[in-house]
Amino acid sequence: MPRLSYRRALTRALADELARDEAVFLLGEDVRVGASLVTTGLAKRFGAERVRDTPLSEQAFTSFATGAALAGLRPVVEFQIPSLLFLVFEQIVNHAHKFPLMTGGQCSVPVTYLVPGSGSRTGWAGQHSDHPYSLFAHVGVVTVVPATPADAYGLLVTAIRHDDPVVVFAPAGAMDVRDDVDDLTPVPLGRGRIHRFGDDVTVVAIGHLVHDALAVAEELADQVSVEVFDPRTLYPFDIDGLTESVARTGRLVVLDDGNRSCGMAAEIIASVVERVRLLAPPRRVTRPDGAVLPFAPALDRAVQPGRDQLATAIHLTLKDGS
Amino acid sequence: MTDADPVRLYRTVRLIRRFEERAVELVHGGQIVGGIHPYLGQEGIAAGVCAALGADDVLAGTHRGHGHVLARGADPARMLAELCGRVTGLNAGRGGSMHAADLSIGVLGANAIVGASGAIITGAVWAHRRRGRDTVGVSFFGDGAVNEGMLLEAFNLAALWRVPVLFVCENNGYATTMPVAGAVAGSIAGRAAAFDIPAVRVDGQDPETVRVAACAAVDRMRAGGGPELIEARTYRFDVHHTFEHAVRLDDYRPPDEVTRGRVRDPVRIQGERLADADRAAVDAEVEATLDAAVRFALDSPEPDPAEALTYLYASGLTARTGGG
After folding, report:
1. Catalytic residue ranges of A
2. Please, what is the average pLDDT of chain A?
3. Strand, coil or helix: what is B157?
4. Quick check: A236 pLDDT over 50?
């Protein structure tokens, strides 16, 4: 069974789709050389026309991709830095996302926005460490945050084949995860995955935090039976899958590397409590309200959701519900 | 397949003129909600530029975009139905005045975000050419857009990658109420020069002058040239937006300037090139077309609220409803 890193899974997905479909092309800063270490080797194999280095003009090349998609191509736009999404939010939301409705169904805009290294990379400070997936879920752009190499491959392939814009967050904290992967296949959107079954509490963890949740579940195994649910897609969200889980466990904790107000955790909890009567108040472990990641490593870690906080939250739901 | 026929050029400006006048009436009558940004006075630009285009070409316009869509050949009845929010509209009533689009004829849409069309058209033209077509594109924008960073980024991309996009600046002197002199450092043509994009300034009030300039640019682009810019000086005869018919803003345009600005009328200028009988025949045909368009629009059904978000996702994804 071959070992595959998350990062190489993304590379494989890009290579397979470039090979499979002439309409696919890659656009972004330093993609020819592969500064993100994801597009490595693709320019040599597919040529500079299909692996296109751009000037530092994020707004223009994001809308360039929209135009190319309107003309029948399937662009994949790479952003090396998650915070660049704030810069191109307008181009994605106001144009790529709105065109199908505004034109009354005359067009589709199949663009994939790939963000390798989202969230904290430790030491990259305030303008390189954001994790703004909730913004895209809020406006209704398909948003995926794979946690494992197999899902990174499968969701990126699905994103590229999807007929609407998709943002693919590949968290920095997951990029070096390695797994035994023998079956690389597309992963459907909107379908979560239970990584560990449990009876007492469902922990929803997003992206790289899935691995933290699994570690905490293992640590607490002699005290509490934790189920770990990975939504994989944040929009559309697998609320049926999560409802089924929480209906069994009766308790819910969400681990989310976004800011607290109006974040994914808030949405997930609201969606569950609309459907399920819980045994205890739900808990969420998130970045603080309005968090800007400070530079110093200890401060950076201090505002990211941590394993201790998760363990505490799990214990609180058990105490509250007893 | 450029169109040098003066009668057809006149028909285009006359059609846009009367379409806009009828649309303003429908705004006042309450049949068009949200108002419009009338293209009155600027008709010669859309008409002249679109006469230079071929079947595979694409364009995108602005919030003041009716003229671009009509000049490209969209059905005036379906265009008017769109303005009236009817299911028979070009966009099935989902876009309205500021987003009217007809992708079947290469109109990627009016676009209400100032300066947005440049990069979209650049990408579309590049993609069509990669797929083996001889496409050129037109990005229409106003003088206000020349201060938008994303348009200047698009100039750079198009020039760098030699994508044949004709950037057409409709300089009507004002970005809403802001005069060019108060907003534009340097010059509009100078922005093109910074990217080695050839630029010409033309009299946008003369449809034939615009057509000749656009044909020359399109010919050079089809022969392998990169993007070009035309700055068409023009004057909008009416308001920025029809809300000004109800709410009088300060005289941001001096009354004598408006009077002078309206003297050079593109419909009259092109009309004088026709024999009286030819002109009268076009006028009558345009009136009949628009009478039918108004009837078609007003007789068309309104969309079903249950289908408000039908076209939200091309993939068929359905959104959760907002109710409890």
Report:
1. 128
2. 96
3. helix
4. yes
pLDDT score for A1: 62
Q: What is the tens place of the pLDDT at every residue in A240-296?
A: 999 999 999 999 999 999 999 999 999 999 999 999 999 999 999 999 999 999 999
Mean of the pLDDT values across residues B22-36? Answer: 97
| Residue B2 clears pLDDT 70, i.e. is over it | no
Interchain contact, A164 vs B99, CB within 8 Å:
no
Q: Give me the mean pLDDT over the B279-307 stretch.
A: 98
Q: Do B311 and A49 touch (CB under 8 A)?
A: no
Contact B123 A71 (CB under 8 A): yes
Nearest CA in chain A to B129: A71
Find chain B residues with C-beta within 8 A of A55's C-beta.
153, 156-157, 160
Tell me the CA distances in angstroms from B192 to A58, A289, B156, B204, one per residue in order: 20, 45, 9, 18
Residue B250: which pLDDT band, with cuts at 50, 70 and 90? confident
Judge: B94–A101 Cβ closer than 8 Å, yes or no. yes
In B101-143, DSSP assigns E strands to: 137-142
Domain residue ranges of chain B, discontinuous segments joined by +: 6-307
Residue A270's pLDDT is 98
A263 Cα to chain B: minimum distance (Å):
18
The pLDDT confidence band at residue B1, using thresholds 50, 70 and 90, is: very low
Chain B residues touching residue A140 (CB < 8 angstroms): 312, 319
Q: CA-nearest residue of chain A to B117?
A: A63
Nearest by CB to A57, from B126, B157, B312: name it.
B157
Compute the Cα dihedral for A275, A279, A285, A290 and give only its sign: positive
Asked if the ipTM is above 0.90, the reply is yes
Alpha helices, H only, chain A: 6-20, 42-46, 58-70, 84-90, 99-102, 133-139, 149-161, 209-219, 239-249, 264-273, 297-303, 307-321
Residue A67 and residue B156: Cβ atoms within 8 Å?
A: no
Contact B123 A109 (CB under 8 A): no
Q: Residues A141, A168: contact at Cβ < 8 Å?
A: no
A202/B295 Cα distance (integer angstroms): 60
**Least CB-CB distance to A68: which of B123, B317, B319?**
B123
- Superfamily of domain B6-307 in CATH is Thiamin diphosphate (ThDP)-binding fold, Pyr/PP domains (3.40.50.970)
Domains and CATH numbers, chain A: 3-180 (3.40.50.970), 193-321 (3.40.50.920)
The proportion of chain B whose per-residue pLDDT surpasses 90, expressed as a percent, equals 94
List of chain B residues whose C-beta atoms are within 8 Å of the C-beta of residue A107: 101, 103, 314
Token digits for A29?
């800063």
Residues 141-180 of chain B whose Cβ lies under 8 A from any Cβ of chain A: 149-150, 153-154, 156-157, 160
Q: Which two tokens stand for residue B100?
A: 């009217």
Handedness of CA A242, A247, A249, A252 (dihedral sign): positive
The upper half-sphere exposure of residue A242, i.e. CA atoms within 13 Å in the direction of its Cβ, equals: 34
The reported pLDDT for the residue numbered B248 is 87
Closest residue to B157, CB basis, from A64, A66, A95:
A64
- Residues of A in Cβ contact (< 8 Å) with B150: 59-60, 63, 91
**Tens-place pLDDT, residues B139-176:** 999 999 999 999 999 999 999 999 999 999 999 999 99
Dihedral (CA of A196, A200, A205, A211) sign: negative
